[in-house]
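thread: overnight batch results

M.L. [08:02]
morning all. the overnight job finished for the chain we discussed friday. pasting input first so we're all looking at the same thing
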Amino acid sequence: MTKFMNLTPHAVTVCDPTGAVIATIPPSGQLARVKPLPVVVGAVEIDGHSVPVRVNDYGPLQGLPDPAPDTLFIVSLLAASAAARLGRIADIIVPDDTVRDSAGQILGCRAFGRQQA
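M.L. [08:03]
and the structure it wrote out:
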């Protein structure tokens, strides 16, 4: 049986095709993170104020456990991209096909996605 370890700060709610909740995977308390490293590349003027324009580079992936038998790790898309750059994709998944309420808030996901190497 597959185990899931949620390495995000939020519970992940999984829904069936109609949007009905079938499972909720609580956060594990451990986070897989990629720290943004912003670099100012210019500025724009708005109403007499200079507002910086930045690009983000990213630091190393932190907090991702070593692979474990029959375990899938749920991470953010940014963390999954960083893991894929390291060649780690088979056990890393991200919430996909989101279910939203009328205000656009995410209620859950109908699928999981995987990054490509």
